[in-house]
Amino acid sequence: MTDNVRIGIVTVSDRASRGEYDDQGGPAIREWLDKALTNEWEAVSRLVPDEQDQVEAALKELADEQQCCLIVTTGGTGPARRDITPEATEAVCDKVLDGFGEQMRAVSLQYVPTAILSRQMAGIRGKSLLINLPGKPSAIADCLDAVFPAVPYCIDLIEGPYLETRDEAVKAFRPKHAKKPAD
Ligand SMILES: Nc1ncnc2c1ncn2[C@@H]1O[C@H](COP(=O)(O)OP(=O)(O)OP(=O)(O)O)[C@@H](O)[C@H]1O
Ligand SMILES: Nc1nc2c(c(=O)[nH]1)N[C@H]1C(S)=C(S)[C@@H](COP(=O)(O)O)O[C@H]1N2
Question: Which reaction does it catalyse (predicted)?
Answer without folding.
Answer: molybdopterin + ATP + H(+) = adenylyl-molybdopterin + diphosphate
